[in-house]
Amino acid sequence: MSNKLNYSMSLAKPDAQNLSMIQKIAVFLGIAGLFIMILALLNVDFPNKAIFLTLSLGLIIIGTVIFSRDAYLKKTEGIKNDGVWFKSISSKGILAWATGIILTGFYIVLYFYAELLGQGSNGEANTGVISLFDPLSQLLSGRPASQWFVYGTLYTVAILAFGYKFMLKYRHNRYEQLRTASVMFFQLGFAFLIPEFMARLNESPQYNLPYYDLKSMWPLNYYLFDSWSINGFLSSGNLGLLMLLFGVISIFVISPILTYKYGKRWYCSWVCGCGALAETAGDSFRQLSSKKLSAWKLERWLIHTVLVFSVIMTIAIIYSYLGSDPNKYWLTRPVFLISIGLFLTLVFALIMIFKRNELGKDARYGAIGFFVVITALFAMHFTGTTEEIFLIKSSNLRSAYGLYIGSVFSGVIGTGFYPIFGNRVWCRFGCPMAAVLGMQQRLFSKFRITTNGGQCISCGNCSTYCEMGIDVRAYAQKGENIVRSSCVGCGICSAVCPRGVLKLENDSMKGRINPNEILLGNDVDLMDLVNQK
Question: Which residues pair with 450 in a beta bridge?
């Protein structure tokens, strides 16, 4: 028992809440579930893997549910600090660093050393923790488990279990309840179960279904236009062709329409699996996102650099798939490059003509990205051969893209660094899909977060809990609408506001951006302002 004398007169306890007996039991149950997986990792031969897998996952889920109910149902509705900055796990303490190291290590092993998890090769049976998941994989898809099935199962369990915790925590807010139920549904159904069921259907000779995550779009779905994916679609008859067309239509039609009506939140906060994990399992770390201006500048440069790289790599992948013989391919390489160049030029010209004033100096950065892509098209035309692109073997180029963007950035860094840099590291700094939707949201979306500056008491809750590093309070104090390309519309800023200052709205384009020149404290030198006038 602590002997510390607490003379604080604060209504909210300044120290972290101690775990209750029920919460300690819940933590023990969760650790017991993980311990079974650790034993499997050490090649302990369980007599009935199905029972022990059920026991392991069940203990983890039950422990999380019991902990969540005891933590939130005994309190009144509403968001409370509860000493979040005094907890080691949520304030970059020892537990946070240990968790980050463990998560990062898991992702490194998962992506690059699957044999350490027991992944069988050359037809050999699985061992270790992967073999523990064989019964579930056989039940769903009729095939042995892989490291990706293990990851997908744990990923889904985390979203479902912590999604329940999230819904209890924000039970006072209907918007948070609905969007959490949405991401749980899409992860369980579209990302996990449907692909497994499609694999089982492929066992029948009358079915030949390609692998396709229906909720994942390019450029997040970076393998959509890869040769094996295209061949899978084309070899599946009309159904495969329809799925390929759906993927293309999603990019150029469905996504812009939904973003125009609802902002990027329709995907980033209601559908996306990356966002689902960040919002549920990563909710305890949302306050760790940096609100510094330097972080915002780095974010804009980095995420759009990844987008440019993704565009070039996708063009290169399609280019390497196409041939030059018009009798064999109706779309030849030269025609493809010219078409892409004309399309990008048209998009760039329209943005410069109609939206240049709104973009400001960012228009210059957009021009840099445009010319980089156009230069890459010329280089691709003059250096591309049957086997090489940019004088590099096309297969090596594709592998490098999948390694550094699909694996290292989105997995190892994006999730492993939750406890250190916040829960939206990948969404904020690396996701090319977020970059595309962000540009659409900034340029022509009806979505905005409106503010009532007269009601703002400058408590700072909104800025603290913004996972995308937006200084929401600065907008609220001025009564200025929040129209930021990085905003994912999670609505937490509105949920934690004690005065109802913030409101998520879809309204007309007129008056959406309303910068107000209001002097706050020592933000400006008054004499300099008078001289400028």
Answer: 503
